Amino acid sequence: MIEIKHLETLTAIREAGNLQDAAERLSVTQSALSHQIRELEGRLNLNLLNRRTRPARFTTAALRLLTLADDILPRIRSAEREMQKLASGSTGRLYLAIECHSCFQWLMPTLDAFRLQWQDISLDLSAAFSFAPIPALMRGDLDLVITSDPVPDESVEYVPLFKYELVLAVAADNPLARKRFIKPADLSNQVLITYPVEEERLDIFTAFLDPAGVEPAAIRKSELTPMIVQLVNSNRGVAALPNWALTEYQAQDWLKIVHLGEAPGIWCTLYAAIRSEDRETPYIQAFLELAREISFKHLAGIRMAT
User: Fold this and answer.
1) Which residue range or ranges hold the HTH lysR-type domain (predicted)?
2) Which of 1, 9, 185, 291 holds its CA 20 to 30 A away from the CA of 108?
């Protein structure tokens, strides 16, 4: 009566937040998705969505099915990955580099899960802050690069992992904390704290300041997100960071988070760069699936990347 596709549909609705985005994620029309939900409701003789609210909310019955989905679907995916390992021989290597200073929050659990499922794959991780990782990928020194700065090349494929909003972290007593959103000119008298990356590869410049011809009063660099947040806390500057990187600090009354620009704000995409020839490699596909799955479990405020 209850099929795997039904559990996947309910999970997609929960993660996407609405029927339209869930339909896009499942590559079906919103009408087809709604029909599937009504079909299941007919089979169960229960309502799964409270359609009087906007967006529609899950009923108690749907929440019970989601509990079932959280138990069953990971086990099914794990079994599928095991079958992939049997079919592919499960040997190889996965050497990764990250250009994302705040990626460890979701990447470490992903790597742990990958090691358990692909024990015969040689796995290595390096921080690509002091070398050019994409040329290393093309040379074969690396197999995957986590980046938000794609450099088009026909030999490299950029697989979207998720979208995130770039927001401005400011001290509570900074005048910018009282603004509904930040305009580029608002940063002309501020010290901007950034990771040690070239300006042309930072979204705060390429997507926000440069188009407006605005420069911050000064730039200060720091490699670690906690150090950046402490500098903001002590009113030594402001910082543009991914929304999910600030989740653990949002409850602090000394930190305020302000949108960059009017709604919808500045949204960026995090990619996994791989060689085009490796796109169908089973363990790389498995890593990409795990990365998305675990990201949406661990990170708040991210969206599906299409």
Assistant:
1) 2-59
2) 9
- Give the tens place of pLDDT for each residue, 57-76: 889 999 999 999 999 998 88
Tell me the whole-structure pTM to 2 decimals. Answer: 0.68
**Best CATH choice for the domain 90-161+269-298 from the list 3.40.190.10, 3.90.1200.10, 3.40.50.300, 3.40.50.10420:** 3.40.190.10
* Architecture of the domain made up of 4-85: Orthogonal Bundle (1.10)
183-219 per-position pLDDT tens digit:
999 999 999 999 888 888 889 999 999 999 999 999 9
